Amino acid sequence: MNTGNPHSENQAWTIGRLITSAADYLGGKDVGEPRLGAEILLASALKTSRLALYTRWTEPVDDQARGQFREMIRRAADDEPVAYIVGHKEFFSLDFEVGPGVLIPRPETELLVERALSWIREHPRETWQVFEAGTGTGCIGAALLKNAPTARLLACDRSEKAVAVAQRNFEKLGLAERATVIEADWMLLPDDTVPEGGFDLIVTNPPYVATTETDIVGPDVLAHEPHEALFAGVDGLDFYRRTVAEAPPLLNKDATLFCEVGWKQADKVVDLFTAAGWQVIGRWKDFAGIERTLQFARPG
Question: How far apart are CA 58 and CA 14, in angstroms?
Fold first, then answer.
């Protein structure tokens, strides 16, 4: 990408010209959503919003910002995720810190939040005790708390780095008083962290990519995002098996569980749960028509 001296072409490097040039360059490097990536990176370099770029389309960009943008584009062309480069990612209209070692929030996971919030609103209670396994950035739990004032959350992750990032995100969003984040191995929780009577709701987006299907994961994801947050055994179902076994002792008798599933996994996950006595309550597709969110009632 050429973002050097514009005078050779007697044309200033404006915001519009930089975005167009960078998007073409990233597209040539097979980077996904090159236009969006170029806009996010330039907005970060200019310390402004993506929307503001369009109101300043013909404004020239100074050498310092252009140099910073050029370095960002180079990193993106080398398959580094844009969210890691800028250090944050939007999810459910909230802004979350992200970084290497923590899975980047995906828009399809917003369906999981939407369905859990609908359930909470349709079944009002004085306090909702919610548990999230594998919290990562904390985006799912934070989106729930932000939109469900009666909810209190325990979130856990195996990664010390993820726990620290999630805690900072809850604090930044003003949710720390209703959220506790701990380091734990999936749903094997210390007894003193489980509320008396058990949780009312579990929500989770577990690792679900099969280790035999690394080819379905983009090169940027495979090279940079934490594999322990992506892969789950040879069939991708290891954490659903663990959930089936580990979740019931954490739940009260009227509790429910929401989980995200991967492409073509819904039927297999349903079979695992129902074989263990769980009842299917709901199945929902994302905007791509993929069954993405499932809801179960606990066995017994």
Answer: 5
